[in-house]
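Progress against Task 2.4 (sequence-to-structure conversion) is shown through the following example record, which the project officer requested during the mid-term review.
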Amino acid sequence: MAILSLTRAWSALEEQTTIHVILPNEVQKNQKLQVLWLLHGLGDNGSGWIRKTNLEVLIKYTNLAVITPEMNRSFYMNLKNDLPYWDYLTQEVIPEMRKILPLSTEPKDNFVGGASMGGFGALKLAFTHPDWFSAVMPMSPVVDLTELPKMMPDYQAILDGIRPQKYLENLAESVPTSALRNLRYYYCIGDQDVLKPSNDQFVEYMKNDLGLDVDYYTGTGAHDWLYWQKMLPGMLTWLLHVNLSDGKPI
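Structure tokens generated for the chain above:
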């Protein structure tokens, strides 16, 4: 595998940030890669998925590129009186990385996932642009923004001017339900995670109110990298339908 760290200036943020990339060792001429846009959690950065898991090993026998952008403590929002991280992600990172690297633009080849704050970001992206992706994989996501004051002291930077009640639900109901039903959903959270009650309720909403087919995985685990690392092999196998040991179809 090839691991790249791309640092460049971005006009939306008016500063330089780093994007971390995992690519297959061999990319054939005119070959377009499947892409997993993998989003980090609060207090972490884009390198977390590379430093704290064996993601590089797991995707060895795939055609998958993994892109992990730096999103600071933004909760994937345009921050009021601060930097427009949502615009940066959707209007710069995704289209610019497609110019720089041989990434497929086909929805069937594009997937979005993330953990904690990144799980929220993955759901937000999927519910805002369901036609960009074919699968979404939230891991222990924050789905109730009214819980933010309990987890981040600077929560006002996120919630100032934003209605936290049913934020994701309102997004989901702003796009055609048929578009959301075209997506595949891998959703997981540990039984010992403090966010599990709100996630149980949100998955019920996705299934019962939106009619989405959600593969919901629970079991022993907390809100930490030990749990997300444990769930990564199953998530990637579910996503790609291949054996991660040899790349052969399941």
